[in-house]
TrEMBL record:
GO molecular function: transferase activity
Name recorded for this polypeptide: Putative gamma-glutamylcyclotransferase
CDD domains, per database record: GGCT_like
Organism expressing this protein natively: Absidia repens
PANTHER family, sorted: AIG2-LIKE PROTEIN D
Amino acid sequence: MSEAAFFYGTLMATEIIGDVLCGKSAPRAIKTKKLASLQLTKALLKGHRRYAVKHATYPGVLESDNTTDQVHGILCQGLTLRDVAALDDYEGDEYKRQMTKVILESLEMNDQGEEEQGKTTTASCQVYLWIAGKDQLKDHDWDYEHWRQHHLADTVV
């Protein structure tokens, strides 16, 4: 049986997924094979909010009282229990893993070749929620593209 997790931060980068699940020093071919065994799908986590963490380059997510809050990320399916253990080590004691549901939205092509909103489905998965204290979070969202441009190369796995 395979496991699934919702990634909303540094793990949205396939480079980081490969390093975490296979080891930073693993050959590229091993990481490529591992990534090919996973299914990565854009997803939404409703009823939660993502924050930048103070004095860090990664985010934290908290449940929100506002049901319209949502976090964009990816659903990663096909994980093994060994993969989950590696993710637990990577996330550390600032996060707690728990079950949740995310929304997957499929895009379909219309007769003119344009993308249209498709059928919306949900999937059960695990998510790593921030537990190290709200006082450690900034009052704004974490920016994935900024992180990729400025911090990806320095991210320690």
